[in-house]
Design a protein that fits this description.
The chain is mainly α and 180 residues long. Helices cover 71% and strands 0% of the residues.
């Protein structure tokens, strides 16, 4: 009697889980030690998705045996420990402000927005007078070169981010990082 293609596919579930586990575990350890992050982060994320699919196939294939394991306290203890470990990482972050990993960038933008135009203009490869003219041409109220982007935003009743974008409008696009 020949196996159906679906049965053959399910038979492959355990070897697929094992192979994906090896790749995911290896890339996870490398990421933990910050080795080759740029190269393997995306691989690790995709292997996580494949791992979930393969694990579901494994559960379908071995459902009865897994139910038998579910009657033993060891599985429940392991599950509770895994959930507690996950909670130790997740719960503290629930109360933290959402940063998206860009705290340094946000702080830098804040510094730039508070910097007087006379000091900011050379960083933008322009003169203070040209920067004032650019902002005024956009309809903003600029009190002079001693005003900051934040002060111009307040005086013009505009968001500081919008004013900063107008100040940066004349800059050339940044060069891509080396190696890309």
């Amino acid at each position: 009697m020949s196996e159906t293609p679906a049965r053959k596919f399910l038979r492959a579930a355990t070897p697929i889980v094992a192979a994906v586990f090896l790749v995911s575990a290896t890339t996870g350890v490398l990421l933990f030690f910050h080795l080759g992050e740029r190269l393997i982060k995306e691989l690790h994320e995709w292997m996580g998705v494949v791992f979930v699919v393969a694990a579901l196939l494994h559960i379908v294939r071995n459902g009865r045996a897994l139910l038998a394991h579910g009657r033993k306290p060891a599985l429940w203890i392991a599950g509770v420990l895994a959930l507690a470990a996950a909670a130790a990482f997740i719960v503290p972050e629930l109360g933290a402000p959402a940063s998206g990993g860009n705290d340094g960038i946000r702080k830098l933008i804040g510094v730039v927005q508070r910097t007087p135009i006379v000091e900011l203009a050379p960083l933008l490869a322009t003169s203070p007078a040209e920067l004032v003219a650019r902002l005024e041409a956009a309809g903003l109220k600029v009190a002079g070169t001693s005003a900051s982007i934040a002060e111009v935003a307040t005086a013009s009743d505009r968001p500081p981010r919008e004013v900063l974008e107008l100040a940066l409008a004349g800059l050339p696009a940044p060069a891509p990082p080396p190696g890309r």
